[in-house]
Amino acid sequence: MYYKKISCVLVAAAITVSGFAQPKKVAAPQSKMDQFVTNLMQKMTLEEKIGQLTQYTSDMALTGPSIRAGYKDDIQKGNVGSIFNAYTPAYTRQLQEMAVKNTRLHIPLIFGYDVIHGHKTIFPIPLGESSSWDLAAMEKSAHIAAAEASADGLHWTFAPMVDIARDPRWGRVAEGAGEDVWLGSQIATARVKGFQGAGFDGTTIMACTKHYAGYGFVQGGRDYNVVDVSQRTLWETILPPFKATVDAGVGSFMTSFNEIAGVPATANKWLVNDVLKKQWNYKGFVVTDYTAINEMVNHGNVANEKEAGEAAINAGIDMDMQGAVFAKYLKQSVSEGKVKIQTVNDAVRRVLEAKYKLGLFADPYKYCNEERAKTEIMSTANLDAARDIARKSLVLLKNYQQVLPLKKSGSIALIGPLGDDKRDMIGNWSGAGDWHKSVSLLEGMKAVAGAGVEINYAKGANFTDNKAIVDQMNTQGGDLVTDDPETLLKQAMDVARKADVIVMAVGESQGMTGEAASRSDISIPESQQRLMREIYTLGKPVVLVLMNGRPLTLQWEDAHFPAILETWFAGTEAGNAIADVLFGNYNPAGKLTISFPRSVGQIPVYYDMKKTGRPADPNNKYSSKYLDIPNDPLYPFGYGLSYTNFSYTQPVVDKKAIKTTDKLNVSVTVSNTGNYDGEEVVQLYIRDVVGSVTRPMKQLRNFRKVFLRKGESKEIKFTLTNEDLKFYDANMKYTSEPGDFKVFVGSNSRDTQEADFKLIP
Ligand code: BGC
Asked: Where in the cell is it found (predicted)?
């Protein structure tokens, strides 16, 4: 509504200034694609059009991939435009032939899949990768994923997930880039560029920005739950990464399962039609999430599936994932005048254009390449890249008295359910990945440490002894094995007693995070806590190696163990990458992109908080704080240690006051004062001291990842422009406001030094 008003005002202004209305623009000549699609659409029946808007899944039987008889029939009749969960060159060729050879208009299928963090070579989970703060590496991992997927028959991935997420109870924080809007937007862009490359030459795939929008804000962190956020939160926090991917040319969007303030995203005309398609001028197509149209009946905004389909397509949805609602009812809705044929045509055009851009009309089998699949999938180069980004993703949370790196001599006890585990290394959303090929921590440690170190392993504890959780996970395709807890503990204590150092690999099993894996208690499960408490009594140096898909509450662990390394689920090469860090072949430099709360009661806790009218004051009872814990998280956004130390000078600004057209240079000298060469992520934050609406205390605006040799110093220069100072003002206008600003530079969002400047009119 708001932008419409503005555009009316602008049109009126243009008329008054020039005295008469501007002449109508001459229509641009039709592109080849337009001509092709227009010709094709002229030949299509309504049924064939609806077919293009329909997507069904393929299945995986024990004997290999399979398609349900009904879907096969539908493909051959032209009632399906897309299949997902189907891959391999041979199988996709078989399905493609069904569509191309048997249908009247020979329109090819588009094959989609959740290629989330790698196809067969699995990279760290997205939250892990984001901790590398290495945009080029993230682009590269998406590029490799695309190369493998495209060689394996796929055209389209349902990634990146760009939901800003600040509630670690929500299992899907694992799939995104953390809590920050600015960094999240950069990472979203890098991932789109990585998947899509410079064009669809057959070695790249179409990306899909998801989940539009607000899914990261489900109440209580409970998956699929209600979302109710202000317009300000939407524009300031939720929407920017989505917009960034539109600017990066993303080919498709997926709506989210949740409602926002009473309207399910999949029926949200304002969100999809008005903002995405009109205001942002997005030209790609929009697919629903899995059966999200049907689920509107449960939401209660429609009475039945037919109405749900009408609400969806009228809101701007172009493709129905798995729900068959368009297939069943859209023809009737059109004949009743509930859906205009132009609306259907717009959707069909968008889907056909995507197929055209992918080159599928020119060659429907362009992505079915047995030779490429054989040579490129899990190539040595891809595995090397996976090891490299896995190392970059690890975050050293604590290293008291330099317990790490470990010596390549003596004896080590490796204890914990994740120590000799392959399945969990590749995390969830790694559908095509073969976990048998992943490197366990035990294997990695043995390979990297060499013969000089004796490493003995004991599982020590089950992931959890909570039968309800085990049963729930295992009935849904999980593979949690439970052994007798007492025997496990005894074995672990025997192994640990004989060792010089104990490495404990603890955390979550991969199924404890991801979709439909919300947790109300985000601590390490009690079975493993008991193990940790017992091991602690031995008084030996303990290194905790954490594997998990979300922030955990680690107050006890932080207080009792000298070294903690966060490794997420690091992918096919996890064991090697973690061992590289443990034994000092690689100096860790990862930084958290999401805060680790002290306790669940602090949630949501994130770094760009506002001050409130009663900022926390230990001497004032009536100030905004808890009685039992500090306000800040245990490990803040941007935090992560290195084996070396870095010192910072106070930042210096080259001007005390700037105009909106000026640039402000900020410089700081960073020195490596420790004993190792290493990398540091130098972070720059700003604060608008007084705004027409209240502003966060810090907002990330830039960073630089720098390598410094031992003893080396470097001057790091940043440039701030007016763009960096803008926000949605009291009238929701995106602008900067004159006044005082602070700029902070430092090693994480908590430890910074500051300088001041003014923006003058
Ligand atoms: C998830 C999506 C995913 C889709 C297809 C849904 O359950 O929410 O993120 O892309 O399934 O697998």
From this structure: Periplasm
